[in-house]
Amino acid sequence: MAGPGRPVLRPGDWVTFDGGDHQVVAIAGTSLRLRSATGAESVVLASHLMAAPDFAVTGTEPLPAVEPTGLLATLPEAVREAAREWERHMVEIETGLPPGTAPGTPPRPGYDPAVFSLMERMAAKASELGVTVRTVQSRRSRYVRQGVWGLVDQRATQTWEATGRADARLVAAVQEALEAETHASTGTRSRLIRRVVKLVEATHGEGVVPLPSQRTFYKLIDALSTGKHTFGSAVTRRQTANRPKGPFIPTFADRPGEQVQIDSTPLDVMVVLDSGLTARADLTIAVDVATRTICAAVLRPVGTKAVDAPLLLARMLVPEPMRPDWHASLRMAASRMPHLRLLDVDARMEQAAAKPVIVPDTVVIDGGKVFISETFVRACDRLGISVQRARPRTPTDKAIVEATFSAINTLFVQHLPAYTGREVSRRGDQVEDHAVWTIPELQDLLDEWLLAGWQARAHDALRDPFRPKKAMSPNDKYASLVAACGYLPLVLRGEDYLELLPVTWRAVNDYGIRINYRTYDSAELGPLRRQNSGHAAKRGLWEVHYDPYDLSQVFVRTQQGWITVPWVHLPLVNAPFADFTWQHARRLAAEAGLDDTNEAAVARVLDALLARAEHGPNTRTAKVAARTRTAAASHRPPAPRNAPEPAPSDTSAEPAEVIPFGVFDAHAEAKRWLWPGPPAPPSSHSRPQSRSRRRTAR
Asked: Which of 145, 328, 523, 549 is deepest in the core (most CB within 10 A)?
């Protein structure tokens, strides 16, 4: 280990390598021939030898380390200046001259390397500085190994403790109390101090652990609660505590359908319910990770039902033009829209036909009951779709769909009337008074925006590998990935869409099929009337599928195929309606004193509901009327014992008159001449029931 001021490796040196001692026999270019202590020879690359963790040259000092300049910059100036002063002394011991000496200057007495040995020079330096020779030797040894960092006073490099000199038991108690504040309501520091003191006394005994002053207590709490939002927003505190401990790894997918994420959230907009009041709508979407395509989106007014997840799966896998009677449903919905549409019907049909239909390989869901239902899991298993559940309370497992919700609120929802903002502090005044859209109308607008806006809009996360600066739209990314994959997955057929719809079993009677006091009939049911289906397990009933968001028709399975059966009173309503709309119409009919089992009467109430939604209900009047009735009922004085009963009030009257548009409505004009229909015939396989029992039958 000799050389002009730097370590070298020569033939004949012994090195430690691969757990043993080896002698360097020869050097040829970048290769070295080694002979072990047992006589075995090997040839290794010099870079491989020197990079080994246990490499060392026997009998020499370790290689010098590079000075940590970053740590030096964190030290006080006085500490750094003292280290530099020691460095000048070390250089004078090694060379005989301090750094920065002019050329030709002779060494000082006692430091000439040609006259005095290293030990004599170190002894002279110790005498000059007034320290021991051992101190100088120790400083020189650290300087050779670590440079200036070895000359730094190590007391100045100790890590600063945020808790200061507080007792470790008190620190542990404060940390435990801070963890308990995660899901509690936000309090003050004085409340936390009181809880910490009680916790310390209950754990270690009263007076055992020394307690600091109130000011020091505050400093200790502030130091330990940094970044936890203990005394700030409770929502931010819970979100911060819910973050995963490990690093966040983005989700990648190389082909369409490799991973599809599904989730639900309330939209930041108020919609008009069938009752005339306003509420927020829940949105369930499925997003493809590779292309950011929103495969399906379903709106509903209240909590999700178990049938919604399979219905979402059906809308994902079956293109809209392939669904039964989709064109007719679209034109029917367009006829009820009182406002301007984003697209006309023909343009929407054209874009819907061009929308990518993605068959998922894996769907990522959370622990919601709607997604882990047996119906959804069995449908995915039958179609070969892997279901992957996200970890509880870990939204980063499905970060793509979470970010998509935020984008929908920013790009679409905030431009709608009655936008509420993402939190209460951002909400405007009397937002609910501006609500004009019903759930079906908002669903129609959302579907159109997904086709015309989202699918054709450039997405920042979608990039072309050959043009990384140019963002791509979901449609363009889908076309690019399909070309790269070299195959196109086959989508399901219209019959498969019907298979994923909810199913019920009913008899085909002379009047047709009865479901929840609605009658469905068509000429194609003629051969099936009063016939046994052949399913003994279902007592000969027929398999009927229905869409809970469009009850205008049902689908009956026969041996020859499917039969589409419309609702007999559809000409009276002439608009698609959902199951929750029908249930509300029955409640209104019962409140008005009508027979809610008479579908003709309920149909007229249902048509009135849809008409009020079309012309815009007076939500303020409805709310005032509801509050007035509640207040009158709760503050009415007790009636005299012998007082006569009051006359029944007409609860069917509207709170305020709704003035329709000045256009001729043929259906409204025809209803003026309609006679109440006959009561619905009883089922052929059931006995006559009283009215009270019929009201609870299904």
From this structure: 549
